[in-house]
Each structure stands twice: as structure tokens, then as C-alpha cells.
Design goal:
By secondary structure, the protein is mainly α. The chain is 48% helix and 7% strand.
């Protein structure tokens, strides 16, 4: 054990040497190993529960599909195509699904109904076209573009030796 550990006024331990930093990295490596083992256990449990759940749900789904098929077969024999009992009823709805060809539709709407089109900012291209000057966005003409802020951030990662 290191006896001359520096303790500050707030009674927190502080790393003051490379040896102490090395011990902290060893502690990080051990914690990472424990975390990895725990995640492995979690995944094994999740896989087991998911397999059990899927087996149970497949059996229920198969039975439900069979019951619905039997009711539907009977429904088709009825003149009005409906089944209504104290335990349930069939409800048949007809709907139309709309499919759009965006390119053709956009070309048409540009000329005929421009109010039906939405426009949005292509942020990836805009970011390439502006420069950060003292936290302000400046375009190629030197004009300030309102609505853009640049925020600095810092990220620290700890790489463990293998």
C-alpha cells in the first residue's frame, strides 16, 4: 500500500504520481471486465427469456389464427357476411391504400400546386458551405447567417492498455 497518499481539504483522494494513475487504470480494467461479464449474463438471460416467450407466443398465435380462420369460413357462408354472437362479432372494413411516386408527384406539384410542397434545410450541405468565425456562421460571400450557432464541447476517453 502507498502510505503517502495526498488527501486534500475535501478529504478526496487525488492521483499525484504515475504509479497511482497506473493503479487507477488497473481498477478501470477490472471494472470493465466485471461490466463485460455482467452484460454477458444479461444477454444470456435475455436470450433464454426471449426463446421461452417466442415459443409461448407462437403457440397462442397459431391457436388464435386457427380460431379466426374457422370463424371466417363460417362468416363466408352467411348471406350478409357477418357473424354476431354474445361472445363476439366479425367486423369487415374495406380501405384503399394510397401509394405515392414522390419524384413524379413533386414535379407535378411544383407547377400546379406549390403550396402543397414542404421545403426543409439541407443541413449537411449548409454546414459545408459556411465557416465558423468567432462562433458565427459566415457564408462564402462573407455574410453572417442567422439561425446557426457553434458550440464547443470536450470529450475525454480512457484507453486501457491491452
Amino acid at each position: 500500500m502507498i502510505k503517502d497518499v495526498e488527501v486534500t481539504e475535501d478529504n478526496r483522494y487525488h492521483v499525484t504520481t504515475d504509479v497511482e494513475a497506473g493503479k487507477q487504470f488497473q481498477k478501470l480494467a477490472e471494472l470493465e471486465k466485471q461490466e463485460s461479464e455482467l452484460k454477458g449474463q444479461k444477454q444470456a438471460y435475455i436470450r433464454q427469456i426471449t426463446e421461452w416467450y417466442d415459443r409461448k407466443m407462437n403457440a397462442i398465435t397459431e391457436k388464435r389464427d386457427n380460431a379466426q380462420a374457422l370463424i371466417n369460413e363460417y362468416r363466408l357462408t352467411k348471406e350478409d357476411g357477418k357473424v354476431d354472437t354474445p361472445f363476439g362479432q366479425t367486423i369487415v372494413r374495406h380501405s384503399t391504400k394510397t401509394k405515392y411516386d414522390d419524384a413524379t408527384l413533386t414535379d407535378y406539384l411544383k407547377n400546379s400546386h406549390p403550396e402543397l410542397l414542404k421545403y426543409s434545410v439541407n443541413k449537411a450541405e449548409l454546414k459545408k458551405a459556411v465557416k465558423n468565425v468567432d462562433g458565427k456562421a459566415i457564408d462564402e460571400n462573407g455574410e453572417i447567417i442567422d439561425g446557426i450557432k457553434f458550440e464547443q464541447s470536450e470529450s475525454i476517453s480512457y484507453k486501457l492498455a491491452k
